[in-house]
Amino acid sequence: AMLLSLDIVADADLDGLVAPVLKSLPEGLRSYDSKAVTIENANSQKSETAKRFEYVLQGLKPGNWNLIILI
User: Fold this and answer.
1) Which of 7, 12, 45, 58 has its CA 20 to 30 Å from the CA of residue 29?
2) What single DSSP character describes residue 26?
């Protein structure tokens, strides 16, 4: 298994941001529900907030995969 982390940083309220969908996962790759964490003051020099989405991906067979993430 592997962990895919996606950080989105903005100077806006990210509470309404939903987890991006992993579209068309290749055969042989399974994903599990995303975990979302909000990170306040992501950049100490600016008033920015980050939201991190974490996906657990499990390879069901050996291989290389390309992922498409739509936001």
Assistant:
1) 7
2) P
CA 46/CA 61 separation, integer angstroms = 44
Distance in angstroms (rounded) separating the CA atoms of residues 69 and 20: 7
21, 29, 53, 55 from 9: Cα distances, Å: 18, 28, 12, 18
What's the whole-model pTM score?
A: 0.75
Question: Look-up: residue for tokens 């309220």?
Answer: 13
Residues with Cβ < 8 Å from 22, sequence gap 6 or more? 31, 55, 67, 68, 69
- H/E element, 71: none
